[in-house]
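Cross-check.
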Amino acid sequence: MSSCFYFCCYFITQLLIFMLALAIDLAFGDPPERLERFYPIVWISRLMYFFDRITKRGNANKEKLLGVIYAVLIAAIFTIPCLALLMLMSMAPYPYEVLYVILAVPVFKMTFTVKGLERYAQEVIAATDLEAKREAVSKIVSRDVSSLDIEHLNSAAIESVAENLTDSVIAPFFYFALFGVPAAMLYRVINTLDAVVGYKTDRYRHFGWFAARADDVLNYIPERIAAALILLAGGRPRCDAVERGGRVHRTIVAMCSVLRVKVEKLGHYSVTGRDSSSGSGNGYEAPRTEHIADSIRVVKRSALIFALCYAMITIVGYMCLCSVRNMLLFHIL
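Predicted model, tokenized:
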């Protein structure tokens, strides 16, 4: 009986944490840049950069092993305190449950950002000349933007917004919904490590192997959920974009389908979002500034749809557990 009551409290508490964190993000976003050095997520990068500097190269197997050890160590440093925080829930419903909510909301907020995506995209939109737009886009993509024209800069911004719907929003949401704050933090650690060392360069090919593979595994389901949410938020019954070249993130393909634009990463891939209502099937547009704003609206709608679905599932689950509990009490009495 007590276990049933505990799970009922847990589900509702988790939903409360989720909604409060999302509301805080949409209202205030991330901390200002002058305070980012105090942000725990920044410490993840700094720790891995430190291990990167002290690691000697030359032995592929040793580099792989150290890459695994460092990743696990950093994950433990940031995840174990979250597990300890979760233990507050098992101590007593009150006052530890209240303390858990107060502490868990800001910790969970650190693992995702919707407002942050909007902020960087708005900087690209607000750029008034080519050099300013290149500088704004360079903050959200890893590719060389020095020779890109307006069209390809807009394309890069749209691609980044779409791809980061998975990394920065849906994946943390997904793992929080399954396993709470510790899982969301674990995902954030792995995803950050992948952004630091998960490149196929001579320096990181072996050292960053584990971080890159772990990130791929953790993103497998969230990427597909995010792509489906984009189509749902954009009112498209199916994805009809055409891909050419290498592997493209599903969220980018879905975003092109919704916006009906063509995005291109020179030398790698291109994706054309066709207008199926046009006679030729080729009624796509070159990416413009307005499309960046549209992509942000789609991302925000996707996040809200996920939140609504999560709330509905949680409430239904809570009602089912309460019904079972009441039935058991009735039979016992």
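The longest helix spans residues 289-332. The chain has one domain: 2-332. Passed to J.P. for a second look.
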